[in-house]
Every structure is written in C-alpha cells, then in structure tokens.
Amino acid sequence: MAGDEDAREVVRRLQSLGGGPEVVRKAAARLLGQLAPTAATELLREVMLLAREGFEPASDVLPAFMRALDMEAAQIPYATALRRVAALQDLEDVERLFSEAPPQREYEAEAAKRADSKLFTLPLGRLKTLARLTKNPDELARLAVASEPSVIRNVLINPRLTEEVVVRIAARRPARPEPLVEIWRSARWSVRPMVRKALVFNPYFPPDVGAKIVPLLSSADLRELAGDRAVHPAIRDQAAALVQLAGD
C-alpha cells in the first residue's frame, strides 16, 4: 500500500459495494488479511487521515475497518501483531487502536447476575424471545437493562427499539462490558453517532474496543473526551492526540 492515492482508490471501491455495512466490514477484513502487516498499518493510517480531512469515501468506510479489526480478527492472520508493527513504524495513531487496557471501572459478573435475577424470573430462552419480539415499549425498556449479552443481542434487533433506548443502554452505569460490546457489534446501531459517543464515554466500556470508536468521533466529541477524567487514560490520550493532529 503506497500512500494517499492507493488509499483513495481502496475506499472508493469499498464505498461502492452493495449489501450494507456487514458486507463492507467483511471486505475490509479480507483486504487487510491480504496485505503485508506493514502495508495494512499504512493503509489504516491513510484511511484515518483521509477521513479526518473530510474525504467522504474514507469517512464512510472507516467504521468498516474499525469494526473489522474487532470482529474479523480471525480473518487477519497477523492481527495480534499489528500494534507492534505500527509501533516499529512510528504510526502512533494506528498503534493506539490496539489498546490492551482493562475497563476504567468494572462491574463484577456475580453482582450483575444477582441484579438480573431480581429483575427477571423467566428462563433465558424466554427472555431472549421476548427481547426480540415484544411490542410493549415498557417491557422492552426493562429487558434492555439485562446484563446477559444474549438478551441485549435480541433487544437490539427488536424493530420497536429506538435510538433513545439504545443510548441509555450504552451509557448505563454500572454495566458489564459484554452487553455494551453487543451494541458496537450491531450493524444497525453502531452507525449512530450518539450511540458511539455513549459507548466510548462509558468508563465500563473496554478500551480495546473503545479505541476503535475514537477515530469515528466528531471533533467536538474528541475535545470533550480528551478532557473527561472518568474515561480510561488510554482513551483520553488517544482523543487528545487526534485533536492535536487535526490542529484543533
């Protein structure tokens, strides 16, 4: 991957694909998997730069690359080495995509299970069916506070679900990381700027995933995130670095 013009051609080609965000994500993963590690990190940097410059095709497909790094790592043979490769190349903005830190705050799994057991008496299978099919907005809102990720996965595909409820789920504290990550992995909801913001500002959200959301934020959100002492320092520093690169 040589540079700017090659990256422009790549993002134009990905942008032209039909089939929705899942198709583009898988195509981005295949492309990264076909490149040498150094070429893959250079491509990621170029796409991020083009997106920050306002090049529309890059802005459109950058989320596909970020989600591919999280969801399609098995399709990228050297995915676990990309952080080290980027560090050797002095590509700090790419290196920061691979944070290995734990969440800033943690909600113990057993405490979450106890809280769920007080709220829900139905078997898990029934809860998942209700989450997917209920037409009752109050019932849907109640199911949305579950800590069991499979319940949230079904809540997220309920056609009655609104962005307002998803933002509340994404911002909920305390929270287990697994249901929050389900929101990021939802093709339907991960495209919403307010949803992304709620996730990355949540101190219970895993920084290794949050680091892939930070480059997708607006300049105003980056500035706010850079000054938020509640989030993990790695996320805060990443936001500050992007603000500096943009000259804000």
Task: Describe the model.
- The structure is a single chain.
- The protein has 16 helices and no strands.
- It is globular.
- With 248 residues, the chain is mostly helical.
- α15 (219-226) packs across α16.
- The protein has two domains: 4-98, no CATH class; 109-246, no CATH class.
- Helices cover 64% and strands 0% of the residues.
Outline:
The chain has 16 helices and no strands. It is an all-alpha fold and 248 residues long. The mean pLDDT is 94.
Sum up the structure in keywords.
mainly alpha; 2 domains; 16 helices; 248 residues
Sequence-ordered SSE layout with sheet pairings:
Elements: H1 4-15, H2 21-34, H3 37-52, H4 56-71, H5 82-88, H6 92-95, H7 109-119, H8 124-133, H9 137-143, H10 149-155, H11 163-171, H12 177-184, H13 193-200, H14 207-213, H15 219-226, H16 233-246
Q: Helicity range of the residues? A: 55-70%
Number of domains: 2
For the record, give the distance between the C-alpha atoms at the N and C termini, rounded to a whole number. 29 Å
Record field, number of beta strands = 0
Question: How much beta, percentage-wise?
Answer: under 5%
Q: Tell me the Rg in angstroms.
A: 19 Å
Low-pLDDT residue spans: none
**H and E string:** HHHHHHHHHHHHHHHH
Q: What characteristic shape results from the CA principal axes?
A: globular
> Biggest sheet, open or closed, and with what strands and sense?
none
